[in-house]
What does this fold into?
Amino acid sequence: MTAKPAAAAARATVYGYPRQGANRELKKAVEGYWKGRVTAAALRETAAGLRRSNWQQLAEAGITEIPTGDFSYYDHVLDTSVMVGAVPERHRRAVEADALDGYFAMARGTEDVAPLEMTKWFDTNYHYLVPELGPDTVFTADPGKQVAELKEALALGHTARPVLVGPITYLLLAKPAPGVAADFQPITLLDRLLPVYAEVLAELRAAGAEWVQLDEPALVQDRTPAELNAAARAYRELGALTDRSKVLVASYFGRLGDALQILAASPVEGIGLDFTDSGAANLDDLAAVGGLPGKRLVAGVVNGRNIWINDHQKSLTILGTLLGLADRVDVAASCSLLHVPLDASAERDIDPQVRRWLAFARQKTREISVLARALARGTDAITAELAANRADLASRAGSALTHDPAVRARAGAVTDADGRRSQPYAERTAAQRARLGLPLLPTTTIGSFPQTDELRRARADLRAGRTDTAGYEARIKGEIEEVVSFQEKTGIDVLVHGEPERNDMVQYFAERLTGYLATQHGWVQSYGTRYVRPPVLAGDISRPEPMTVRWTAYAQSLTAKPVKGMLTGPVTMLAWSFVRDDQPLGDTARQVALALRDEVADLEAAGTPVIQVDEPALRETLPLRAADHAEYLAWATESFRLTTGGVRPDTQIHTHMCYAEFGDVVQAIDDLDADVISLEAARSHMQVARELAAHGYPREAGPGVWDIHSPRVPSADEAAGLLRTGLEAIPAERLWVNPDCGLKTRGWTETRASLENLVAAAREVRAGL
Ligand code: GLN
Ligand code: ZN
It folds into this structure.
């Protein structure tokens, strides 16, 4: 960009901000309300106070147009369902009796009414409540929340822009309501939905909105021609309304592709595009459609979902190009800041040098305003900030944390052979059978046993210094003894140690690998009032010492039955962390894989005959566009094979994933070359077993026969029925018997009963073979 100022003063804006407050005040207030300790009035007051302070933070950081309506007690998609009156039949009475309690009933269910289903918001780790729609759905406008929050912000003197989930994204995220044909397509309700959006737009205009933002991230995914037509129609019709504010259609999480031309040709006044690496193609695409003459372009140049400082020089180059392509260019984060923690400066435990590389929501808002200032007044206006930014980037690039020569040399020397087992499955399975001596339909579990209050208390005691390490470890050993003896008594064939020492399947390993950082306050919303603190994969990864061997070996010392070692795989280690953005993900995955490979080797050397490497995130990490799948799956499967490929033929490698639909990754699952895979299958009546069979999956598999998501105990008959269904797809020599997933969220009572039934079912079906 040149030092020449742009014509109109650029605005700095964001699409949304973390809702929880610096001390998770929102979580406390909402949960307090659920428990009856906080009144509705007090909850409302806490929420209003948080909005006020968020807006003030934004304004002070130099954000000149703030978002409203992005705040939520639980979830913004649920808020949208309320806004358009899409309340499921079963919740209607509760909502009519009390709007707030009805809202939470939709989110969480009640004793007799199920909640809305929850699923991941695009490829983030945020979960939304899935709208349930059907041919009988009647939409009605309820703009109350949007209007009230806009008025609050305007009364405080802010320039405010209401943010709504757009109609296309809303419908594309919905699913057929219970009782509605599974092939019903909610997008067919568009004509019914648009008048409701028109009404909301009119109300927002009346309340004083100059601009309204409609979020359409669903348009960065592959869309059918019919869906693209729907988008064209929606924005033609909304654009043609006279009683409305100016409309900004925001896209994020990637390139718009075909939808860009559609929006560019529509009468909306503004378009928001992602110009980070994932949306980089937007730049050329925008030039190809002739830019956005007469429109406002909101340029998402600051990455809204990672936690790293921006590269200002790079952003300025992009912004410079964009100035020639639209009437007006404003600066934003690429997506809502909902997906990052609030404030990096609160991380007092992180080395100050490293802390300078971090940008959470507060830091990002300052970055955005610095860039907007450069757009308005030229780069001379940000000379000091540019120099500081350059210095911080240089410190990161030159640091020993991000560049460990030993790690790099090792990763560079990896060959194809490292990721290949020394024998093909057909040969090594014979060696494994001879070593393990298992019956047909062997029984096992996925790893974790109930994480009891006692275990959590033991960890809290250790942290607080009330117990020393020896005392803590004695408690963990005691737990392992109980878990092993229970499994022996119950007759399980391949035992586990129960993972009592693990607070979380990613965090446990992150705490033991060099290159990972932990945050103290880095909370991000996972769903509702659940917040997580993902570890930060900041540097080159290495493993100073074994991480799990002593616990697995201790369990093995207690029994003659085989004990399975448990590790979290490289893809999941990346997916559930904040990952460095200064090298390709595949390079990072390879480093993690090599560290895990050492752990696998140590487990094997300690006599562990079975090692499971969990990859529950393999499918959820699939890129949003099909065109990007192959590249991802190549490094994802390579990293798994690198983790496991070095073992002897008679060491059995298991993997585990938990989801019901996986048709699109079945080839990748095959490419992992694991000896045994366990999968979630109980609720879908062994659907995955049929999908594996249809693919010709040649190795062993354990489709789950116990849905562990609820405390319900499956009877032996029920489990046997599922096993027989499994046998129709997978031959007895290759079928395993296990639950859907780990048992850490279950209680001991149902765990005991369910596993006893599972073993009884295996015996019964075995006897009939
Ligand atoms: N081994 C882990 C456990 O049993 C797997 C958890 C998961 O798949 N999410 O808890
Ligand atoms: Zn699982």
